[in-house]
Every structure is written in structure tokens, then in C-alpha cells.
Design brief:
Length: about 170
């Protein structure tokens, strides 16, 4: 059984690997399936996150996320300040919102199912460092012995694969 009343799926990768674009496409695809989607972004670049206007989290919200938040350097934007935030504490804040899924951008070291975005072969080392990698979306022609790899320009293919994974979890499979 899941720990939360929603599916948690992480999208991780180095800066400028396309995480926000992939999440935005996923939000739209999942919303078309009638699912309520929330997002949570880890601001991993140090310092407090930017304000919501014009940021990645505002793009998530504008794409149709029911709720969108961002965490960085101890600030979670719902304008709540605390010394620091763990992913579990943040996900617990999403519990009462009636969501089907929360897409988490970042928090690489957490154990939830994740898709990794790689810019090229040099980023492949990240896959070895992470737990619970379900798939790879890459900017190059990357292959992996145990994890499906889909080129970034094959959006329909990786969106379909991720949607099927999420539907399987929602159905309890």
C-alpha cells in the first residue's frame, strides 16, 4: 500500500536537463486523463526560491496543477517559513488536497519512483547514484542495461510509459 493517498513520482536531472518541460507535459497529459495533479519542486540551487510569478512552479500551476509548491533553502512557498523541510513533511501538506498524483521535481536522494533526465552520456553516472529509477529521458543516444531509455524528442513515448506506470500504481498493481 502507498504511504500517501496519491502516487508520488520524481523527475530528476541536472540543471537545464528539461525537468520542468517534461513535468509540464506530464501535467497536461495526466489532466486529460481526469487525474488531479500536484507538483512540488526542490529549489536545489541554494538560497531561497524565486517568487511564484514567472517561475517553474508558476508554469506547473498554469499547466493545470491543482497545487504547486517549491522548496529551497528552508522556504516552502505557501509563505510558510521553517528551518528546513523534508520531502515527507511537504508531501504530508498535500494530503488533504484530494490529489491523484504529486510530481516531484528534484529531491534526488529520496527513494520514490523516479524518471531521470540526462543531457548526454556524461550524465549517466547519476543513474548509478539514485534509487528506484524507472526510466531515462535523454538528449542523446543513451542506453542502459536495466532501465528503459527514451530520447527526449520522443515525448509521446515517454509520456505514455509514465502514464501507464502511474495508472498501474493507482490501480494497485
Amino acid at each position: 500500500m502507498r504511504e500517501y493517498p496519491f502516487v508520488v513520482l520524481q523527475v530528476v536531472g541536472y540543471k537545464n536537463s528539461g525537468k520542468t518541460s517534461v513535468i509540464t507535459s506530464l501535467i497536461q497529459a495526466l489532466q486529460r486523463e481526469g487525474l488531479k495533479v500536484g507538483t512540488l519542486k526542490h529549489h536545489g540551487h541554494g538560497g531561497e526560491p524565486d517568487k511564484l510569478n514567472g517561475t517553474d512552479s508558476s508554469q506547473h500551476f498554469n499547466a493545470g496543477a491543482v497545487v504547486s509548491g517549491v522548496e529551497g533553502d528552508g522556504v516552502f512557498q505557501w509563505n510558510v517559513r521553517q528551518e528546513s523541510w523534508s520531502l515527507d513533511v511537504l508531501l504530508n501538506l498535500y494530503r488533504p488536497l484530494g490529489l491523484d498524483i504529486v510530481l516531484v521535481e528534484g529531491f534526488k536522494s529520496e527513494p520514490y519512483p523516479k524518471w531521470v533526465l540526462l543531457r548526454d552520456d556524461n550524465d549517466l553516472k547519476m543513474v548509478k547514484e539514485l534509487k528506484n529509477v524507472q526510466g531515462i529521458v535523454s538528449g542523446g543516444s543513451i542506453s542502459h542495461e536495466t532501465v528503459p531509455c527514451i530520447p527526449r524528442d520522443k515525448e509521446e513515448a515517454y509520456i505514455r510509459m509514465i502514464k501507464n506506470q502511474i495508472k498501474g500504481e493507482l490501480d494497485g498493481k
